[in-house]
Design brief:
Blueprint (H helix, E strand, L loop, with lengths): L14 H12 L3 H8 L3 H15 L4 E3 L4 E3 L1 H28 L3 E7 L1 H6 L1 H11 L3 E7 L2 H9 L5 E5 L11 E8 L1 E6 L15 H7 L1 E5 L5 H12 L4 E6 L2 H9 L5 E4 L4 E2 L2 E2 L3 E5 L6 E7 L9 H13 L16
Parallel strand pairs: 3-4, 3-5, 8-9
Antiparallel strand pairs: 1-2, 5-14, 6-14, 7-10, 7-13, 11-12
Length: 328
Amino acid sequence: MPKTPKAVSSPQLTLHQLRIVWAVAHAETVSRAAKQLGLSQPSLSQQIARLEASIGHKVFERGAGRMIPTEIGAFLVGRAEQVMREMQALEDGLTGFAGGTRSIAIAGIGSPVRTLLPTALRRFHDAYPDVAFDLHESSPDDVLAMLYARRANIGIVAAGSIAPASTGFVQVPLLDDPYVLVVPEALDLDGVSAETALAPPQRAMLNNVIHFVYGTRHQQRIESWYADKLPNHRVVAQCRDFEIAVSMVRAGLGICLAPALSCRAGSAVLPGIRLHEVELGLPRQLVALVPSQYRRLSPYAELIELLQATAGAEPRPALAPTPPFLLP
């Protein structure tokens, strides 16, 4: 008598496991994926191992500092994205049926949160007075972490501050923010044809650099500019926030290169500084990061459109010409 084939049970996957697969596949490093998920790195590795054991296949190939999806892993990543989109749409729909006040969480880097958001949110509030806002000023990595953890619905970052493969979100262009040379008001460089034409105190101030630590390829461009244009410079301070760098310039500590938007208070340039044009190649490109379904889902789609309109109408600050001795 032939034996009855043994039934094979289907692997049971959870939404939490799918989120882990998604985050690990899109993060630059395992440690960053763990941070985005709110897990320790050993715990994340253990959960991936349990998932692989439950389905009987490797989901990731272990590499130097990150994990690469296998063929089955790539299949799971694609399906995880679909499931997560449907879950978000389901939760948004239930919120609408439940009535009451809906809250939209927005996480972004400093200058666009302070300059673009207020006008856009005021206009949005006129059309949706029952919607509240949960605002977070964060670093690019933290913005991504909040988006992955679904603690933010919309993120605002500089496109160059994140690796394209690390997001998985739609990037909606907002504004090209040019880099400028920020100098103390006491340092008058208008028409200066040579560094030696400056008085010794001004020359010393010019060569004191407040350096923003970018952590990206753009940092090489900044360092090359200083090395070429100001070969006698020295770094007197390092920081990780453009607004802090500009505040150091306002205090007279030295000079810095920063996006123009970070030098503003409302529509006016901050007092105590002068802004000069510089040639640094590409500007800082500000984008809104959103799950793809939000591009057409109300009221998120309307808010994104208002952000774009506000950014498009943003006044450009008055910039002094590049000092002659800094020209090519």
